[in-house]
């Protein structure tokens, strides 16, 4: 078993990343391995094995330890098992950063009579993936004394709390629950010196998007975001990841219970685009 970090910080602390093999999770894992230099314990479902191997190599190139666990991270049992493995690997009080980047949601309509009906199993699965698992893992980390002093816990949010997109009602509801979990956990963990926040950012190009959309549809998506965003383009995974490295640092220590808007003003022009197309 690895020794826990020394009190003086001579051994690097760890980042726990759920959804680490691709997209925002992978980008954040690589970024925090380089700055401030965290080891990475990642959990992923195994859908992107090539990118998972690439992430391992990049983290090791940064001089940090890395361990990727292939498992469904969304259930209470998964959180318990994963936290046990993390404790064995990293030791107590080792987790400086916990990032919840699980993507697993159903799209559809609540009252549809067709195949897009959001039946109870889909609802439960979406809430487990996108909201409840944040609590499950936080509970498991606290019970095992895995949080390092001044640990940062971070959920990820999207702009669907400000606007509506046809078939994403279930995602919006789950993310609203996540926001409430973040606020209440911030109150419970604040006296212990930890910080719990939510980072909200807009659409970024990920392997999942490229898998779902055709090249033509992706081009339209980028063009519409260029019209919508004040900067005239989509945000990038690298920009999101770099900002997370800021949130781990001492200068961001007063953020707590916050929903941090990192959308680049993505929704500011929506009404103008509708009224003045």
UniProtKB/TrEMBL annotation:
Signal peptide: none annotated. The keyword Electron transport does not apply. It holds the Pfam family adh_short_C2. This is Short-chain dehydrogenase/reductase. The lineage of its organism: Bacteria, Pseudomonadati, Myxococcota, Myxococcia, Myxococcales. Gene3D superfamilies: NAD(P)-binding Rossmann-like Domain. It comes from Corallococcus coralloides (strain ATCC 25202 / DSM 2259 / NBRC 100086 / M2). The keyword Oxidoreductase applies. Keywords: Oxidoreductase. Belongs to the short-chain dehydrogenases/reductases (SDR) family. It comes from the Bacteria. One of its GO terms (molecular function) is oxidoreductase activity.
């Amino acid at each position: 078993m690895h020794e826990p970090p020394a009190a003086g910080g001579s051994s690097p602390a760890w980042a726990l990343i759920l959804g680490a093999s691709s997209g925002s999770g992978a980008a954040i894992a690589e970024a925090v391995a380089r700055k401030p230099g965290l080891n990475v314990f990642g959990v992923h479902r195994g859908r992107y094995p090539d990118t998972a191997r690439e992430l391992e190599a990049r983290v090791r190139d940064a001089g940090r330890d890395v361990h990727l666990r292939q498992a469904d991270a969304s259930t209470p049992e998964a959180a318990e098992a994963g936290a046990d493995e993390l404790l064995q690997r990293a030791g107590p009080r080792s987790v400086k950063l916990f990032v919840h980047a699980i993507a697993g949601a159903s799209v559809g309509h609540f009252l549809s009579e067709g195949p897009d009906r959001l039946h109870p199993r889909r609802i439960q699965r979406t809430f487990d993936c996108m909201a409840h698992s944040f609590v499950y893992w936080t509970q498991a980390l606290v019970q095992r004394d895995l949080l390092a002093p001044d640990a940062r816990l971070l959920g990820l949010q999207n702009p669907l709390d400000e606007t509506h997109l046809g078939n994403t009602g279930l995602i919006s509801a789950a993310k609203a629950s996540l926001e409430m979990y973040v606020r209440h956990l911030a109150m419970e963990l604040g006296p212990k010196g930890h910080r719990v926040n939510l980072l909200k950012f807009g659409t970024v190009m990920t392997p999942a998007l490229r898998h779902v959309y055709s090249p033509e549809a992706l081009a339209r998506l980028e063009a519409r975001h260029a019209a919508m965003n004040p900067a005239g383009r989509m945000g990038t995974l690298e920009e999101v990841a770099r900002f997370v490295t800021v949130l781990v640092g001492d200068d961001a220590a007063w953020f707590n219970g916050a929903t941090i808007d990192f959308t680049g003003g993505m929704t500011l022009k929506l009404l103008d685009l509708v009224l003045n197309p």
